[in-house]
Amino acid sequence: MTMVVAVQPGAQGQLSQQEVGAGEGPPTTEGVIVPAGVPLHIQVTRTAHLHTGAEVSGVLTEPIYVRDRLVVPVGSTLSGTVTGYAPVDRIEREQALLNGDVTPLHDPVVDFTSLHLVDTDEDVVLDTRALIRATKLVRFSSAKKPSLVRQAIHGVKTRVHDVYASIFGPGKKDRALQLLYGQLPYHPQRIWSGTQFLADLNAPATVRMPYEAPVAESEVASLNGITVSARLRDSLDSKISKKGDAVVALVTAPVFDAEHKLILPEGTEIDGVVTASKPARKFGRNGQLRFGIRGVKDDGQATARTKEKVYGTLTGAEGSAGQNLSVDAEGNVKANPDKNRFVAPLLLAATAMAGQDADHGAANAGIGRTTVASNGFGLVARVVALTVTSRNVAIGFGAYAFAKSIYFRFLVRGHEVTFPKDTQVEVTLSTR
Hints:
Lipocalin, 3 domains, disordered N terminus
């Protein structure tokens, strides 16, 4: 990436004193260019309506570096507008329809056009196109898999914590609306607070900053044992990618030695290759993907570090919650089955069977029918369960929910391991 010094002329065409400082010294400010194609990770801070022209505001959740310096810190605020719609995932649409939700679901396309730097109180004009991308970074963990009892206890504790947070945590109004909309067969759509977007710069953006001399490069530092943060230049998919396919990642944060000399600048290319790929299969069997690092490209300067033979292991990867990714000690990325794959269908089957029990009075039977029905079509099923006296109707809703759970967990094709363009990864480099 390129960094330029932009000096503005004074009123008479001369260099202003503010820009050059006193005497013949270096300039006091500079314009740092963030090139086109750099992704901005944004989180929405205020719920907005999902329609063209709606205003959307958010904050930056990942810093932006240019070569050796931080240019846009985390917490910088952004604003934009909804400019279009993108189709939702097919599986998501199918699940909504089977849940009785006939709302024509859309994902928003947002153009963020303004960036405000809190630290320097500067405003930057942007040209971006942003799409929803809800992901989190999954790192390798060497801990042993806990027993089923410990997993159950942890699951209960997590559930209790989530319920407590949903009741007493901030954003209660949004959560209440989401819960209500989730029960309705047709509902308005919103861009909820907390929604994550990934915005690609369509054109370079110039950020005014105090002048800093470039950091000296390290001539002797080894890359062995260094962990770097990077983003994939191109997408990878366990369904499409084949063994031997090239992988290129771009370093997103500079790496320094103990003396704060530059080892790897932002933008350094890390070359790799797909070493194993297995597509998802029927009956819920998920895909797998593994790639290894085979070299680090220098920036044209023949330093000692660029002559090292470098390998690398993936130690972290960004994935969506639905993929349920895990990373093993060898860098293999796997999409795991749903954690409730067996428990959820069993519970639904148990509640469906409980609806047949008429030995505990009409009150208990009514509560049971309502509980069973709510597993089918949300509010519609609850109304039916309360108004229709036949328990067979409620049992039918429960059986439907059970069948639906079996279908999506065991019969459909499993999840692919998908890394879209700009997916964040962590790689540990080694010279052995």
